[in-house]
Amino acid sequence: MVNKVLRHSVLLISIFIGWVGVTITPLFDSVTVNSDYDLTKHRLGRPLPFIEQHTSLTPMEDAYPFKLGLVSPQEHPTTLLIGNYLCLVVAAVFAVYMSLFSLQFLYKRIR
Fold this sequence. Notes:
Elements: H1 2-23, E1 31-33, E2 42-44, E3 51-53, E4 66-68, E5 78-80, H2 82-110
Antiparallel strand pairs: 1-4, 2-3, 3-5
Helix pairs in contact: 1-2
């Protein structure tokens, strides 16, 4: 009984950590913009981009290159790329679950 509860709690913790870890990556991501970069489809997220912002920015010619991160979603329409997002969340949850499960296994074995 305790093993089942512990296994479920490890799964719930893994889901939470994986979801939060993937969701906050665009806050720390930035893209180097040069003259070839399409600012109308600005994509953020690591390792797969899962947020696409449709910006209407027009920088001056001498402003290149510059770094552009997440811009205000209220001013620029933002789209969530569901396929990439779900793929990253599943991969992160699996990685965290396997890490916690192996730590739990090692703890039991040492004990």
